[in-house]
């Protein structure tokens, strides 16, 4: 997968899957635009891409705010003149709590970042791709877009929305040389999963990790790099006629009828 001469824009690029994808694009020859709300993490990600021999800039943005989304698109165009690949990835986990106890402010924050942020990214990146007559978008959904997960009302609702908006966007732009797909990762070895494990069993988060891994046919979580490789595939010419779909990366768990995540354990 050669991305020489291409420009890749990655939101949530400061850590986890986003960071692994920035590094993957950089190693494959792309010029990378790292977008993150955390300035320190985002700048470090850009520096890592450059240290590995790639080209990168960092743009700080809150993806839930229209003006800041427009600003990261402008920064990408000012720096590199085009956007060929867009990994619409930024997301937050929120809290684990029953719906009757779910904090309304956290609900709004999760929906704003995980769903409105994806919508705004599509709204303001797609016009550039349509003007170019080419481009590939990958939205980060989740296996939470396929199943329920106890205690995760906001996250599950947002990710179901991401799966839906992916289908709509792909239908809107397919005839103009632009593709839109989604990925649905299951548990991945990232900070977000550490947070969810700790929320489900503060006394023994490792037990949650072990239970999740044991419930997967492969016996382990995915790595961030494995998910990043799928993103690069969906942005590459190898997937030139794939659009409007979602690729599941969950160690075979959904195929075997497993739940999206282990139940909450009371302590």
What does this structure look like?
Helices cover 46% and strands 15% of the residues. The chain is of the alpha/beta class and 267 residues long. The chain has one domain (7-256): NAD(P)-binding Rossmann-like Domain (Rossmann fold, 3-Layer(aba) Sandwich), CATH 3.40.50. Helix 1 (16-27) crosses helix 8, helix 3 runs parallel beside helix 4 (104-132) and helix 4 packs parallel to helix 5 (153-173). The chain is globular, with a radius of gyration of 18 Å. The chain starts with 6 loop residues before the first strand and ends in an 18-residue tail after the last strand.
In short:
The protein has 267 residues and is an alpha/beta fold. Helix 4 packs parallel to helix 5 (153-173). The protein is built from 8 helices and 7 strands, in the order E-H-E-H-E-H-E-H-E-H-E-H-H-H-E.
Secondary structure blueprint with pairings:
Layout: E1 7-11, H1 16-27, E2 31-36, H2 39-51, E3 55-60, H3 66-80, E4 85-88, H4 104-132, E5 135-140, H5 153-173, E6 178-185, H6 191-200, H7 205-214, H8 224-235, E7 246-249
Parallel strand pairs: 1-2, 1-4, 2-3, 4-5, 5-6, 6-7
């Amino acid at each position: 997968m050669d991305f020489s001469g291409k420009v890749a824009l990655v939101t949530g690029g400061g850590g986890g899957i986003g960071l692994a994808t920035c590094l993957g694009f950089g190693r494959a020859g792309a010029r990378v635009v790292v977008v993150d709300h955390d300035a320190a993490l985002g700048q470090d990600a850009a520096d890592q891409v450059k240290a590995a021999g790639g080209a990168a800039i960092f743009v700080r943005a809150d993806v839930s705010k229209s003006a800041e989304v427009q600003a990261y698109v402008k920064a990408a165009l000012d720096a590199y003149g085009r956007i060929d690949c867009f990994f619409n990835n930024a997301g937050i986990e929120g809290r684990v709590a029953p719906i009757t106890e779910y904090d309304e402010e956290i609900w709004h924050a999760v929906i704003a970042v995980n769903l409105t942020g994806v919508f705004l990214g599509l709204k303001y990146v797609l016009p550039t791709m349509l003007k170019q007559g080419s481009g590939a978008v990958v939205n980060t959904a989740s296996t939470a877009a396929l199943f329920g997960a106890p205690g995760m009302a906001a996250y599950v609702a947002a990710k179901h929305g991401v799966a839906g908006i992916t289908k709509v966007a792909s239908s809107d732009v397919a005839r103009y040389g632009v593709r839109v797909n989604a990925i649905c990762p299951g548990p991945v070895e990232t900070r977000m999963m550490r947070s969810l494990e700790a929320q489900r069993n503060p006394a023994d988060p490792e037990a949650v990790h072990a239970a999740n891994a044991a419930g997967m046919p492969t016996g382990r979580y995915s790595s961030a790099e494995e998910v990043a490789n799928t993103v690069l595939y969906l942005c590459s010419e190898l997937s030139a006629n794939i659009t409007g779909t979602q690729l599941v990366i969950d160690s075979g768990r959904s195929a075997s009828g497993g739940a999206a995540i282990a139940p909450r354990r009371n302590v």
